[in-house]
Design a protein that fits this description.
Blueprint (H helix, E strand, L loop, with lengths): L2 E9 L5 E2 L15 E9 L29 E2 L4 H7 L3 E2 L3 E6 L5 H11 L5 E5 L4 H11 L6 E5 L3 H11 L3 E5 L16 H18 L2 E6 L12 H5 L2 E6 L6 E9 L7 E7 L2 E4 L3 H6 L9 E8 L2 E13 L7 E4 L3 H15 L6 E7 L11 H12 L8 E3 L2 E2 L5 E2 L4 H10 L4 E5 L12 E5 L2 H9 L3
Amino acid sequence: MAKTEKIKYVCRECGAIHDKWHGKCKECSSWDTLEEQVEFVASGATKKPVAGSLNNALKLSDFDVSKLHRERFISDIPEFDRVMGGGIVKGSVALISGEPGIGKSTLLLQICQALSHLKVLYVSGEESAMQIKMRAQRLGVNSENLFILCENELEKIEANVNSIAPDLLIVDSIQTVSSSLIPSSSGSITQVRDCSGVLINLTKKGGFATVLVGHVNKDGAIAGPKLLEHMVDVVLYFEGDRSDSCRVIRAIKNRYGSTNEIGLFEMCDKGLVEVPDPSKRLLEDSPQNVPGSCPVCLMEGTRPIIAEVQALAAKSPFQAPKRSSSGVDFNRMNMLLAVLEKRLGLRFFDKDVYLNVIGGLRLDETAADMGIAAALISCVKDIPLSGSVIAIGEIGLSGECRTVGSIDLRINEAVRLGFDVIIIPYRTRLKYEPEGVKLIRVKSVFELLTALADFK
């Protein structure tokens, strides 16, 4: 039966299929994301139902939950286990992504050493066996159960998996794997989707765990089809500035645990070292009595973490002042600047404003609003805050200060680290007030300004 070529265009962001090329995807409205794919179709072919291939539906009550047992592989790296929800689940597929050189391969080799009692197959499509050996020696990895395979072809990887029968499969990276049965280059949407599907089915049938490494594009998103993130069970992002030693691993999706947990590491000569007390690590180099700095407390899952927000406002030489934020949502920063200008009359419209969160953390919570506002007020009013002051709370468009969740955990963490002045919203209800700590309750940004003026 003759085969004909059919050309289609697939969006690498949402996976939408188009008959012809467009500059803008009609489904997700992303620009320049359509990629050409060639599909071979057998002319005149019709699908016929296969006898006995139909799976019968069962009632929910027919499933025996007592037989369901999810075994986890617990490593000696508690920060990683925390993010995974208590360890790597047997039969699961995890996808870890991050910028080049951030430390993904280093972390995976250290996991191999931590799980040295298990049989691990490490597949690398980017490095040679000698390169992996040299890095393993530097990291002190000497597991006898670690198998190295430098291969890009999917069929050979599958053959080695069936031969070795590992407990854990690591593929670094999924964008380098290709199948000879698919007429497209490695890294294309079709190759990534189909090769991932084969590895996922192999994982589910074999009962072992798989960790896939994914590249990122220039926008920081995982390269390849968005469908890949839906196919896997866990999606982890490895974040951090390569010029800084601090690294953060964050769960974006986790079918077996919380998506709010983070793990903090520090890159050293011997690899990644855990930071068991992130708050203390992030505050150890905080400047004392310098305007424009204020600590905030954010919740990452069940863990409160105190980070430092730094603000700088300087007279702009340009007609349109510059706004820059690192770790703070840009739109949130502009909103807080507008509130401070409107409600307090502070002049930011003629100043360049810079915001930075120390340690590479990202403040996604509104609980950091008061800390950000305090840093901005401290900078523009030249009020140095002592290292014992912290602000916790949300700010509304009217300038009111609103309470936030888990306030008791946040205050306890602040007390543990030695903060003796805590600024909180007026209507905050506490289970108990800590001794030896001054609680300043404020109703609005005007009262926040008055409270900060007392430190001058």
